Amino acid sequence: FTQCRIETIVLFLLEQQGRLASRIEKLGKQRAILAEQPDISAIAELREAYREVGLDLIKLLKFVDLNATGIRKILKKFDKRFSYRFTDYYVSSRSNHPYSQLQQVFKHVGVGAVVGALSRNLADLQERQGSYLSIYDQPASALKDPIIDMINSSVDKLTRSTNFLRFLGQHALIAQEESPSTAGEEEIEDQKYHFVSLMLNLVNTFLYMVNTYIIVPTADDYSVSLGAASTVCGVVIGSMAVAQVFSSVYFSAWSNKSYFKPLVFSSIVLFLGNVCYAMAYDTKSLTVLIVGRLLCGLGSARAVNRRYISDCVPARIRMQASAGFVSASALGMACGPALAGLLQWRFKIYMVTFSQSTLPGWLMAVAWLLYLVWLCISFKEPNRATEADDTPHNRASGQSVDIGQVENGLAQPLLGDSESKLNDDDDDDEEDESEESAQDSRKPATSIGSAYRLLTPSVKVQLLIYFMLKYAMEILLSESSVITSHYFNWNTSSVAIFLAILGLTVLPINAVVGTYISNMFEDRQLLMASQITLLVGIIFSFKVTSTYSVIQYVVSALVTFVSAEVLEGVNLSLLSSVMSSRLSRGTYNGGLLSTEAGTLARVVADCTITAAGYLGIGSLLNVTLLPSLVICAASIACTFLTYNSLF
After folding, report:
1. pLDDT tens sequence across 490-508
2. Ordered domains of the chain (ranges, CATH)
């Protein structure tokens, strides 16, 4: 029955594509005539004709999207009745087969050619019409025809293929809503958007990640210089994560009222924290050192950065901004250790010591002070009144724009009968935890308890995986200076170079996975494979013989780190798809939950390093790797149990 309906849809789609192509071909002949004999009025009429074709194309895209949704609902109903989910397998296997009719429905083969021809001709006519106007009426730059943006928005909504930009954007767990469908909604979003303010948020993200990792190569030496054991570096590094557990919550709540004030507070606290960190050497106080790192953790404004991108960046560029957020984090992670390797001086100014241990604190203090000045001068607080008016109710009530009426699309989808039956069946099955009413799905979680109740087994497993990979990465990075110094006699510069190289692998690995591998395999397949590879890397890291070679450590570290990076991208991609839509907004959102899970993992890992230090540095490596091994094995088992629900 479903296959028959799909064939009906495809035949109708091909028929409409042919008609649109024929109309574009006829208009192309008229355009060729006008190229030889220009006429402003005729060009304007031809543009309107192209725009009519564009509006019909949007109707067709709306039709395909509506019926693709109907197909998914049919398959979903089958999944529920037979208690086995094979929808994702069915769609991916059929849509990738060269002779499958789902190629037309899910990958809109052929529509791209129509979109390209229409967009190109409209842009050409826009420029051609401008060239015949008076030079006094000529605009500085030709305006893009709004119908092109509408077509691109419809195509983007329909497109399901994964690319590098989308893969990076999913790392950030920032809500990606549909693009606004009317000019009025776009105007409201543009009023809230300010490019320099977005850049300030991305720079905040970059500086914070630099601040996090710049002390890693020297934390053990700094601890020893203050009379503590080298393994106390775990407490020094982890104290920042401890404070971040609490700061993420109040910054997320604060961003409901303002973005500027939290960023100012963050900059001031981070400035003071780095000053305390740098002054700990001259005061000979480990307490001052740890207080400085705690202050740095209390200044973590990553929740504000995420929230600003989600709420104030227009939907049409939100994915790019999300990718920028992830890229800024990755670059900061690589630059932190690299800068530490360069700061190899030692001198005094007025009894204040500047050395490889204190210079990271002074450098970051200056950076945050300069950032604070730039922030106060350039940041523009979004209009909260405009944001409040931009509600789903107000959006639905806007009927004054003709384009909004056009986007209602075709009124009679070919799956109408089947879809109505599905809707009737859905009314009888309201207890299904995976389905929410349209109204409830827009209400954010208002408390930790309500957020926890929205966590399905699939979401809990993904959060466990995120905890596991962050734990494994923190163990690897935080104890690297102690391990390499003990076994290989590496100096600070060698450790810094090693950590910088690890950090620089983030973007290339994401590029390969996001552009190629994710198009060849399902996310859940990549999830399982990357966990197994991570487990292999952890096992290979253990010291089981009397000697421990550099090759074994470096290779196992690369395998562990790269596997964790691949796993993080796939994990957050799946988390964004299985998580309730109610967790995409509000204080207790999905980004906050993942941040808390990752931060808690870092705290536990750093405490494990310090606790294991009491058993001796010789036992540190194996003792800290053992929990990673157990948690990784447990996450693989949980993934296997929830495998059929991961899509």
Report:
1. 998 899 999 999 988 887 8
2. 1-131+144-172 (1.20.1050), 193-379+455-642 (1.20.1250.20)
